[in-house]
């Protein structure tokens, strides 16, 4: 089965956790025929009531569609499912899009496994929470078989309207995905630290939220400036040197400590600054931390 009654391609979704269930539901709501499989089939109950078909085995779900989306707790779990398939299962003409989190080694093993079944492999990284699936500005990163990605691009855009294809190397997606989340959660941890410090001083979280764009706008500008400086190897410290940043953040650290507030994010930032100072970069721009931190 490759098309639904609406002439839209059928899609199979393996894994019905918080994210996988939303992926399946979004496709159903867009008129796609959807076959679902989960190790615990009771997770499919609501989706079946909304029109999905239940596969009793993973192989049945794979046979049902030419586009198979896997979204499990991690790539190790998805690899385990694929490893237990009948070795004779033929995936010719089928594309596996793996949206689970994992390592580059996981990607290489899974891509080989799919190839052994004559299938096409595309790796993916979801850059949002479930509530934003289906959004026009939502991004999912992809890399892998180019023909397979472009053949299914219109369907994948139903899930995220702003997809980014990173090329034919299936291992390109995962390190980029992980790097972006390292940035996001590091920045979010710093925001939480600031929100706690402000709350200790009597500033409500809502008021702090209203003021936060001052710094998020400054952060975007700082990222753009730092990236340009790094690309040009221009680390002149005329705006504010590493030494100046250390002096300022030590005041922030003192305020956090006096408030008995956690300060791991500030500690981390200061440790990177001191790494640059130790390397003799104290008088250079803060973008020089990239050089000090780089292996």
Automatic annotation (TrEMBL):
NADPH-dependent reductive aminase-like C-terminal domain boundaries: 172-293
InterPro entries on file: 6-PGluconate_DH-like_C_sf (IPR008927), 6PGD_dom2 (IPR013328), 6PGDH_NADP-bd (IPR006115), HIBADH-related (IPR015815), HIBADH-related_NP60_sf (IPR051265), NAD(P)-bd_dom_sf (IPR036291), RedAm-like_C (IPR048666)
Superkingdom, taxonomy of origin: Bacteria
Record's GO cellular component terms: chromatin
Positions of the 6-phosphogluconate dehydrogenase NADP-binding domain: 11-162
Name used for this protein in its record: Uncharacterized protein
GO biological process, one term: transcription elongation-coupled chromatin remodeling
Pfam families (alphabetical): NAD_binding_2, RedAm-like_C
Source organism (scientific name): Pseudomonas laurylsulfativorans
Keywords: Oxidoreductase
A GO term, aspect molecular function: nucleosome binding
